[in-house]
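User: Um, any thoughts?
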Amino acid sequence: MSKKILLILFILFLSLQAETIWVDCNSQKDKETGTKEYPFRKISDAIKISKEEDEIIIKEGIYKEAIQTKSGIKIKSEGRVIISGYKEIKGWGKYEKNIWKTSSDREIDELFVRNKRIEIARYPEKMWLKVEKFEEKDNIYKIYNSELKNLKDIKNFEARILNSTTNTFFTCPVLNFNKEEGFFEIGKQPYLKLTEKDLFYLQHNSKFIKSNQWAIEKENDKFIIYFYPENEEDLKFTETTGNTERVLSLINVKNVEIEGLEICGGNTYGVWIDGCENITIKNCIIYNNKHVGLSVNKSKNVKILKNIVLFNGNGVSVGASSSNVEVLNNEIAFNNIDGLIVSWGAENITVKGNYIHHHILYGHPDNMQTYRNVKNLKIQDNLLVCGGQSIMMEETYDVELKNNIIMGAGAYSVIFGHQNTDNV
């Protein structure tokens, strides 16, 4: 009897041992067990059977799936692993000359070919135009510039305005265009107080398109996408951020380590961490996610280490009362708005050894921004280069700011703003 009990305990012990689970989307095997010989084809299938202390190894390939982890597991790559939230754009037909078009049920604001963001067609192609004169009536601004008289009679486009008052970018649909008098009309927007110091360009019209540019126009209940590819082969690889809100989610889990993945194409977030503890995200490349590359919320003891985070809406966000978060030795660059945001009750945050640069595009861009009751923040040994502003702080308390190199801000290098940043 005692031998049977020992045997059962031994089998139970073996079943509880940490295992390695393999994933290979390119596997041609006729069965999937998670072994190296018979790997799963989907990461989510490996996660389903995993238990604490297991390691999931993902072999090289493109995985088009949304993933949610369990507690206590490690996920790492072997080779280049891309976890993609992109949606393919299909149905291209010739429009005119080298321009192709297709239709979409939803508006898109980004187009990618082989992971590369395609430039939006605009006028003028490189420079900005000045608001030479404007008129204000009811809820309408009428904006004049003599160069507008050179345009063809067009419709369905937007104005991108750099407002000198707020140092902020605004995107405004054009309601009316008058070529003969050289003006267009836009509706007023909150916080946009137009001045004759403001600059603008026009975008998203098929008449503006040059090689390797795109535009989108609304037509009845559809959206028409126009694209001038460098070669027709590119039409097979057109994508936009997909219907998946989050590519990789960690929700209410503990003791998880993610290493060596590329995470892209999320319609909101690339990596979403919420209600978690003891999380490490390291050596990942997180890019082309619409809202935020990596977002930490209501979590503690999180380490963001040696990642590259670029070409997202915002780069990295730490907030929602998160605590004891370390952002260490990352490159955060070329995101559309802000690079690193620390906000909404975050406390005991360390930002050290990062290279944060080139946040100069939309909204009110900052290399780093802190706001809404941030406490005990250390900013050390970072290089911050080329931002609309380098560091913008408000409602931030007990800050240690030392040994940073900060240069190349479009407006201010460091702002302790709104008379509510204390003890720096």
